[in-house]
Each structure stands twice: as structure tokens, then as C-alpha cells.
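C-alpha cells for chain A. Residues wanted.
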């Protein structure tokens, strides 16, 4: 909708339908995947085994043994004659390499001819970047295709390991989780704290937005005067907030040479559950002296959003159409447009064209 058009509109398509594919999804922190350990995750309704071999090799497989469907993640690593490691199913000992190929079926006897190498479990491309593990989920039509680029990198990953990691699940489709977290107008109502803001503290905002890779950004600016939490950083902080498909939102704050990065990763577990991971890095001394206070505030924010999503579900179960308001809901509209364009570009075998154009948006909060 162009600037100056009608101020309200129905959401353009039904929310909460379908997932993006041919894209990197955040799965775990690198530090959580220890050598010789197997872990089970669920992404897009698919069981995913993430493992790191005793030698440190990271891999991802579909977490279902093709024999009797036992989870491979419940098994263990075993050494092959060539020195490589394979995963042994806990049910009958079938073994699979990091490439998904079957390496052994122990129940076979010598005169039972069977090419075990033709048996495979699905392998997912996996990559580590900045201490984060991403898994590439391809669509069925391209399920064996390799990624067309590396996972995203983020500014402000400084100060060593993360200063805070927090997780929770929203009982909602990723669409509603994304829009809930990017919504700029709910703060005075959902996040009322003495150290942040109250419902009475509302001001008109005007923020400049521009397209970024597979998303958009609220370009670097001074934080709003009624956002008191920035005061603990001292100096003159500047912040930039970026969103990128499929569900990555980060705020990069600079105070002189010091930096804070707050990264929120949304990973769809099923159609009705989304895993939220909040990760904060910083080299600012406030995260040494005030870490318990900052951690408490960040966790409170996330849980308040989760409680509101659960409350929203009371209305969503009746499958209503949604009435969106410009300019406060423009980011939600962009999200829908980005999803449609991503899906269309993959279907048509062409480059992604970002539908977001530079604009200044105005709202009260």
C-alpha cells in the first residue's frame, strides 16, 4: 500500500499457512553440540538429528531409521574400519554415515546379498557461523539441492561467548511469532515496567526503513526517549533493527566503540509451535556489572510476548481475517510480501527481488 493510501486494510493472505524452504534455519549454538554427542531437533515438522562426531565433524540427518523408524539420535557413534564414524541405530544396530548412507546391517549373514549402500536417510546441509549452527531445509522438489550461499552473518558478535542465551516456545505458527516480535506499537501495553515505559508514556515516532538482504532494516537512529533501558549503556547509543527471512531479527546497538547485539532466532517446530532463541553479545562493561539485571529484563520481555501470543490464540482459533493499520503494521505486510516473493523466486528458478522500498513510517508508541 503506497504512502497516503487508505489507513487500514485486510491482511492480504491467510496467516499461519506454509513454511519457507530452500533457506537456512537456526538450530542450535555450536557449544551445545559436543564431540561424540547426538541431539534431536524438530524443524518444519521434521525430526532432525544433529551430531558432532568424536573428531568434531558436524552433520545433520533425518532422525528416523528406515528399518523400524527408531530415532537415530537415541543411538551412539561407532567406528568404521576406515576410521570414520557412523551412527548406530539403538534398535537393530543399522549404521549410517554422516552422508546418510547405510554402512552396515548386522543381521545379514554372509550369503544374503544386499547392497546396503543403496539405503539412505536424508542428509541436511549444515553449517556453523559465528558460534551458531544452521540447517538448510530444501523443498521436496529440490530436496537434494545444495545451499546457494552461506548462512547469514551478524554485526556486533563481540566480547567472546554470548552474555545471555534464553529460550522459550510460542504456541503459534512462525508467521504470528514473527509479526508479534516486529510489531512496533505493542510496547506500552505488553511491556510495562518501571525501567522501560508505561502505557501513559507514548510518543509519535518517525523511523526510516530500507531494504536489506532477504528483509529490511529500521536504519540506525537514536533510541526513543521513552525507552529507559538504553540509559544503562551511557553515552549516546545508536541502534539499528534488522529483519531477515525466514525468522531472524536483530538489534545492533553502538555506544562509541562498544557494541551490543541482541539476536532473536525463530525456528518453526510445527505448524502450531515456534522455538524462540534470544542471544546477546556485547563488549560493553554494563554486561559485566549489570548482567543479572539485564538478563532478568530480557527474559521478562520474551515471556510477556509469549503470554500475549497465547492470549491471541484465543481469537485465532476462530480463523478470523486480520485488520492491519498503516504505518504501524507495514512491517507485517512486508513480511507477507517477502515470503511470497521468496516462494515465487524459488518456484520460477529466478533471483529473489526484494519488494521493500525505502520509506519513513510513523506511529505512536
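Reply:
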Amino acid at each position: 500500500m503506497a504512502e497516503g493510501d487508505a489507513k487500514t486494510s485486510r491482511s492480504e493472505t491467510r496467516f499461519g499457512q506454509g513454511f519457507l524452504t530452500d533457506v537456512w534455519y537456526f538450530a542450535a549454538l555450536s557449544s551445545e553440540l559436543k564431540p561424540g554427542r547426538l541431539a534431536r531437533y524438530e524443524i518444519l515438522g521434521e525430526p532432525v538429528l544433529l551430531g558432532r562426531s568424536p573428531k568434531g565433524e558436524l552433520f545433520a540427518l533425518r532422525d528416523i531409521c528406515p528399518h523400524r523408524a527408531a530415532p537415530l539420535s537415541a543411538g551412539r557413534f561407532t567406528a568404521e574400519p576406515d576410521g570414520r564414524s557412523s551412527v548406530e541405530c539403538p534398535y537393530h544396530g543399522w549404521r549410517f554415515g554422516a552422508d546418510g548412507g547405510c554402512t552396515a546391517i548386522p543381521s545379514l549373514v554372509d550369503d544374503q546379498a544386499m547392497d546396503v549402500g543403496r539405503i539412505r536417510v536424508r542428509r541436511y546441509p549444515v553449517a556453523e557461523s559465528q558460534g551458531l549452527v544452521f540447517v538448510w531445509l530444501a523443498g521436496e522438489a529440490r530436496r537434494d539441492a545444495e545451499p546457494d550461499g552461506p548462512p547469514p552473518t551478524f554485526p556486533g558478535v563481540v566480547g567472546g561467548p554470548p552474555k545471555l542465551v534464553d529460550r522459550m516456545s510460542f504456541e503459534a505458527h512462525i508467521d504470528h511469532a514473527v509479526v508479534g516480535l516486529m510489531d512496533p506499537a505493542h510496547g506500552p501495553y505488553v511491556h510495562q515496567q518501571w525501567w522501560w515505559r508505561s502505557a501513559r508514556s507514548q510518543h509519535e515516532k518517525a523511523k526510516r526503513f530500507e531494504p536489506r538482504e532477504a528483509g529490511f532494516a529500521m536504519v540506525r537512529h537514536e533510541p526513543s526517549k521513552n525507552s529507559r533501558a538504553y540509559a544503562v549503556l551511557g553515552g549516546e547509543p545508536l541502534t539499528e533493527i534488522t529483519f531477515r527471512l525466514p525468522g531472524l531479527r536483530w538489534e545492533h546497538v553502538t555506544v562509541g566503540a562498544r557494541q551490543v547485539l541482541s539476536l532473536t532466532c525463530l525456528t518453526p517446530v510445527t505448524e502450531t509451535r515456534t522455538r524462540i532463541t534470544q542471544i546477546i553479545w556485547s563488549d560493553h562493561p554494563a554486561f559485566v556489572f549489570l548482567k543479572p539485571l539485564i538478563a532478568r529484563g530480557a527474559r521478562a520481555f520474551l515471556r510477556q510476548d509469549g503470554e500475549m501470543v497465547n492470549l491471541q490464540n484465543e481469537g485465532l482459533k476462530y480463523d478470523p481475517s486480520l485488520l492491519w493499520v498503516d504505518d504501524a503494521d507495514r512491517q507485517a505486510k512486508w513480511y507477507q510480501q517477502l515470503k511470497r516473493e521468496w516462494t515465487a523466486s524459488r518456484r520460477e528458478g529466478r533471483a529473489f527481488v526484494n519488494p521493500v522500498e525505502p520509506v519513513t513510517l510513523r506511529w505512536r508508541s
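The first helix runs from residue 174 to 182. The mean pLDDT is 89.
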